[in-house]
Amino acid sequence: MKDIQIYETAVQEGILLNANERSQPLSESFLKEVSEAVMTLTLNRYPDNDQRELLQAYAQVTGTREEMLLAGNGSDQILGYLIGTFLNRGKVLYTFDPDFSMYDYYAGTYEATVRKFDINADGSLDIGQFIENGRKENAAMVLFSNPNNPSGHCLGIDEIEHIVSSFADIPVCVDEAYIEFADAESTVSLLDRYDNLYVTRTLSKAYGLAGLRVGFLISSPGNMEKLKAAYVPYTLNAFSMKAAAIALSHHDEAEAYIAGIRSERKRMLEALQESRRACYIPSATNFIYGMSSDKARLTELFEKEGIVIRDYRNSDSFRITIGTGEENDLVLKVLKTFEEEKPCGQ
Ligand SMILES: Cc1ncc(COP(=O)(O)O)c(C=O)c1O
Question: Is-above-0.85 flag for pTM?
Answer without folding.
Answer: yes
